[in-house]
Write a sequence for this structure.
């Protein structure tokens, strides 16, 4: 279906054309204009597939309108309508690529025939354009995929002669010279790189907006928020390359803070003059990333880190790891966080060459804590599980955050379980105390508070929560059960039974007994004597 613009200064002609073509299946929408200037304004917004225009119009005639449409890049077919049967007009129209030429007066059938012909041309043109775009996209995707594989092989040190030759050809304006590799991670920017196409779009943005044209940069996605880069310049000048990279990322950082609300961090490996060293540069960048602990720097360069003189830190590290495990076992959250910070500072003192040791050491800490936490694996407890693969890519700053969350979670679980054990112990102690002092008339919640060293409110609330009975209900039940057992004996006198169950007043005992059993102590004794099966003990 096509969009049609009709331009004619005679209203009845416009109406006739609209009436003729509006019902045709090829037509999507029709717009009209009373002269060439108005038609040009409408075309800019309407984007017609076909313009049907009169030649003779005020302000801008039909041929001038066609020239203006072509000059402004408005792509459309054109049909000329004129009352002048002159060869000069036809010749000019043909030179402008006019699709057809109608003379006034014309029959509606003539316009419909032209419309069908134009519709077929438009559809063929659209199909051709779509096929071309598909082929171009396919070629582009193929090139991007090949580029992604090539960069990845360079970073892994698997370059071959053909690969190197293609790389040098692509960056011929920046080669030979200085080059280096690095990695970059984004935080809370909303940017994700799920394909090499998205990476290339991002590179186009930062090349034009932030980095010097003297700098050549390529990148691939390692994860959806992480990129690996290769930078190079034509000059063999490491300082210049470092400066270009620093300036570019400084500009990016300023823009990110202003427009995106997120941030990024980047580590850059050593700078070399041979493409074969790019894998070494990338390895250095990764190690630098793992050992980084300063969250204020958005860009870190290999060789700039202030390496302390390496002492034997292994003993200190063992001590801090042991303290962290002890803190977790005792649910001391504050101490655990402080000791974790001290451990990370020890790791930060190492050279970037010890990055693998750091990962292994932290792995040991995680393993030790997970073993300690196995005793709390109950149906009601769910704790975080740390994935080990993050140790391969995370910086010390990121590791501290992840470990802190894990340590806090473990401390909370230990605390909940400790409180549960404490509650269970209290209930058990309360029951034992009641069982051994049923004859004590002073047995009460306040008396139990003095004996157990728990507050009366804690005993009352926790006992009820754990057993479903209040302390007084439990005490009465146990006294009545004991009373029933004593009354079942032949010599069980009511007065003696009341005293043995902690009741000084026999009448009060009898009243409580009747509420519990539904009969008096004497009646109960008579029932049991007549029917021994009614005994409770």
């Amino acid at each position: 279906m096509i969009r049609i613009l009709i331009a004619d200064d005679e209203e009845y002609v416009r109406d006739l054309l609209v009436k003729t073509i509006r019902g045709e299946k090829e037509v999507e929408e029709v717009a009209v204009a009373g002269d060439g200037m108005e038609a040009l304004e409408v075309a800019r917004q309407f984007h017609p597939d076909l313009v049907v225009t009169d030649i003779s119009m005020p302000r801008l005639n039909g041929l001038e309108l066609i020239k203006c449409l072509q000059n402004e890049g408005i792509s459309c077919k054109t049909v000329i309508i004129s009352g002048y049967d002159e060869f000069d007009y036809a010749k000019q129209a043909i030179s402008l690529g006019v699709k057809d030429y109608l003379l006034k007066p014309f029959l509606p059938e003539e316009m419909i025939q032209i419309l069908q012909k134009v519709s077929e041309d438009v559809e063929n043109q659209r199909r051709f354009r779509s096929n071309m775009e598909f082929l171009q996209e396919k070629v582009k995707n193929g090139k991007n995929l090949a580029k992604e594989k090539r960069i990845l092989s360079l970073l892994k040190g698997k370059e071959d002669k053909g690969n190197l030759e293609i790389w040098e050809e692509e960056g011929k304006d920046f080669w030979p010279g200085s080059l280096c590799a690095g990695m970059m991670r984004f935080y809370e920017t909303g940017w994700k790189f799920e394909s090499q196409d998205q990476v290339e779009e991002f590179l186009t943005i930062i090349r034009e907006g932030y980095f010097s044209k003297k700098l050549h940069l390529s990148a691939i996605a390692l994860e959806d928020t992480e990129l690996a880069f290769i930078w190079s310049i034509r000059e063999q000048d490491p300082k210049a390359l470092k400066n270009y990279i620093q300036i570019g990322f400084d500009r990016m950082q300023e823009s990110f803070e202003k427009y995106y609300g997120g941030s990024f961090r980047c580590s850059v490996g050593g700078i070399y003059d041979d493409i074969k060293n790019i894998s070494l540069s990338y390895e250095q960048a990764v190690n630098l990333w793992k050992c980084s602990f300063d969250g204020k720097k958005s860009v870190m360069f290999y060789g700039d880190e202030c390496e302390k003189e390496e002492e034997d830190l292994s003993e200190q590290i063992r001590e801090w790891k042991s303290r962290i495990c002890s803190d977790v076992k005792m649910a001391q959250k504050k101490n655990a966080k402080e000791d974790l910070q001290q451990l990370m500072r020890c790791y930060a003192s190492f050279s970037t060459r010890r990055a693998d040791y750091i990962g292994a050491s932290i792995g040991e800490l995680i393993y030790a804590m997970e073993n300690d936490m196995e005793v709390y694996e109950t149906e009601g407890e769910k704790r975080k599980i740390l994935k080990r693969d993050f140790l391969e890519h995370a910086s010390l700053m990121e590791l501290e955050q992840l470990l802190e969350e894990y340590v806090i979670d473990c401390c909370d679980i230990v605390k909940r379980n400790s409180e549960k054990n404490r509650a269970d112990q209290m209930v058990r102690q309360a029951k034992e105390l009641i069982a051994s002092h049923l004859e004590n008339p002073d047995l009460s919640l306040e008396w139990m508070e003095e004996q157990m060293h728990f507050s009366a409110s804690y005993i009352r609330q926790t006992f009820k929560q754990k057993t479903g009975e209040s302390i007084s209900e439990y005490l009465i039940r146990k006294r009545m059960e004991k009373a029933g057992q004593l009354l079942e004996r032949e010599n069980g006198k009511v007065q003696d039974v009341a005293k043995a169950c902690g009741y000084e007043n026999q009448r009060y005992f009898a009243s409580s007994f009747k509420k519990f059993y539904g009969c008096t102590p004497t009646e109960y004794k008579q029932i049991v004597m007549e029917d021994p099966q009614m005994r409770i003990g």
